[in-house]
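Saturday, quiet lab. Running sequence design on the structure tokens for the scaffold JK sent over.
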């Protein structure tokens, strides 16, 4: 390819992004960055690429909000402190000491790591925890789990203020109850609730798999687009398991409560956010509201590019696979 052809291709990529930039300008997009995406060996690179995507979104006029977890990092500090991690139904048992460790890791380590990575590019990101401005109000879920919280209310004022001032809020998912007791709260759940409270255009989960699979062991079974109702079936028949459960529940809740689209994307893919948002090739799994399945959009992305294998179509009578 000649240098001129290559330059032409780059120009085409930019032009392809134009309708999406126009459409998403001024729109709020909540991105949950998984603890697993932060862990691992290529840690640093993945974080830098993610930060570039967030800055790009902000610079083209979107209002990105980052919500992060930190499960692996909490487990790592627990083991360094010689404290073992106990799980009940996939949820970390969180005694008083553990919630202190979780708060320390999320707000003291993971959150400033993300903020710093974004702010390499300018003074954009501000880190907050759910305690700030009463952002995340919580209550104890189950005494057996200790200080694991369920969200009782989201007070998005602090986040809205930051967005209006053109900052990128980066949220650590510690919440507190009326007495000031801290709780560790599932970041997937918080991301969904914050997206709803902000009236976000999109809710995006970055995780460690290419999207939802209709057969969990089969990488070829990616579900490209689905509805909240179809997801009910996949949860009921056990197709959705483990860490996907809170993501899917949040996607369903969000699209049924005003968020236009929810996406589950592979955070291991370089610039996956830019690929999803600004190119015609949608990527990962997109969840739409039940009455929105046949929605025809003003851009090609969600119609042609989402053409998919018949097995992935949410049919009224799905055959169990
Ligand atoms: P994160 O750190 O992003 O929250 P999790 O490990 O909690 O990551 O959740 C993602 C995991 O959910 C996947 O790696 C996969 O093992 C599991 N999973 C369960 N059911 C499915 C499914 N139907 N499709 C895809 N992944 C699934
Ligand atoms: Mg998880």
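Result came back. Writing it out in full:
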């Amino acid at each position: 390819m000649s240098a001129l052809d290559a330059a032409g291709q780059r120009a085409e990529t930019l032009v392809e992004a134009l309708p999406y930039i126009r459409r998403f300008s001024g729109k709020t997009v909540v991105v949950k960055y998984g603890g697993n995406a932060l862990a691992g060996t290529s840690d640093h690179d993945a974080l830098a690429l993610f930060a570039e995507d967030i800055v790009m979104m902000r610079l083209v006029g979107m209002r990105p909000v980052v919500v992060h977890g930190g499960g692996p990092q909490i487990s790592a500090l627990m083991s360094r402190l010689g404290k073992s991690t106990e799980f009940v139904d996939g949820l970390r048992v969180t005694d008083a000491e553990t919630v202190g460790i979780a708060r320390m890791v999320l707000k003291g380590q993971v959150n400033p790591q993300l903020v710093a990575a974004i702010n390499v590019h300018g003074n954009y990101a501000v880190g907050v925890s759910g305690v700030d401005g009463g952002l995340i109000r919580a209550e104890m879920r189950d005494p057996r789990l200790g200080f694991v919280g369920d969200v009782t209310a989201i007070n998005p004022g602090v986040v809205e203020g930051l967005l209006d001032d053109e900052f990128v809020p980066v949220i650590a998912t510690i919440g507190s109850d009326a007495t000031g007791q801290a709780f560790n709260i599932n970041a997937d759940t918080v991301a969904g609730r914050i997206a709803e409270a902000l009236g976000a255009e999109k809710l995006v989960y970055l995780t460690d798999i290419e999207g939802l699979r209709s057969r969990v062991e089969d990488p070829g079974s990616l579900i490209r687009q689905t509805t909240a109702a179809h997801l009910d079936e996949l949860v009921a028949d056990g197709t959705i398991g483990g860490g996907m459960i809170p993501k899917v529940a949040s996607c369903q809740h969000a699209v049924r409560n005003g968020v236009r689209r929810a996406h589950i994307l592979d955070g291991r893919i370089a610039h996956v956010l830019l690929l999803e948002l600004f190119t015609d090739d949608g990527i990962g799994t997109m969840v739409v509201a039940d009455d929105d399945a046949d929605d025809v959009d003003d851009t090609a992305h969600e119609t042609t590019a989402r053409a998919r294998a018949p097995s992935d179509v949410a049919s009224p009578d799905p055959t169990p696979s």
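Notes for JK: The two ends are 45 Å apart (CA to CA). The pocket of magnesium ion (ligand 2) is lined by residues 34, 243 (CB under 6 Å). Ask whether to fix the surface positions before the next round.
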